[in-house]
User: Which sequence fits this backbone?
């Protein structure tokens, strides 16, 4: 797991390190390294307490999902595609597009 962290100087002196979701923390320190170390300690403490970050990709379950690709081995598929292309060319010529 990696987190993106913003480290920036603050007006009153020192630095602030901030992370965003899923672990939105901020920590201040006299130096950049001190602010980062404090932020890391906050994140480590949260994870040590049992917080778990899980990454997953949602499943797209469309009702026709099982049918996707069902024509891939059909010998007439390529012929059908050529017929569609020929028809489109014919319509385009009739309308003066080609």
Assistant:
């Amino acid at each position: 797991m990696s987190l993106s962290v913003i480290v920036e100087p603050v007006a009153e002196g020192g630095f602030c390190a901030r992370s965003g979701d899923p672990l939105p923390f901020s920590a201040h320190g006299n130096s950049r390294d001190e602010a980062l170390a404090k932020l890391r300690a906050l994140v480590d403490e949260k994870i040590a307490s049992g917080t778990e970050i899980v990454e997953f990709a949602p499943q797209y379950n469309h009702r026709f999902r099982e049918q996707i690709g069902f024509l891939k081995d059909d010998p007439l598929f390529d012929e059908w595609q050529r017929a569609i292309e020929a028809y489109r060319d014919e319509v385009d010529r009739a309308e003066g597009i080609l």
Remarks:
- Helices lie at 32-48, 77-94.
- The chain has two helices and three strands.
